[in-house]
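Give me structure tokens for this 89-residue protein.
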Amino acid sequence: MNVSLTPELEKLVNQKVESGLYNSASEVIREGLRLLSEQDELKRVRLEELRREVLRGHEQSKRGESKPLDVAAIKAEGRQRLARKRKAS
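Here you go.
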């Protein structure tokens, strides 16, 4: 298999090999593909979780266990969290 890389990506691969962390360009590419596969799996799991949560909320709503969305309260809480985060930095 032949793969064409942009000059920037080729430079990155070469830097990884030169660093001594990898013995060859093939190792760098395999590691990148492994990480891509892990990222895809994580996205799949998160999507499943989101779907379960949406279904759970829908079921709760059908049972009358929901309450109206308070956008102002959500915004206020978000602003407070942001302010705390900025203050901690």
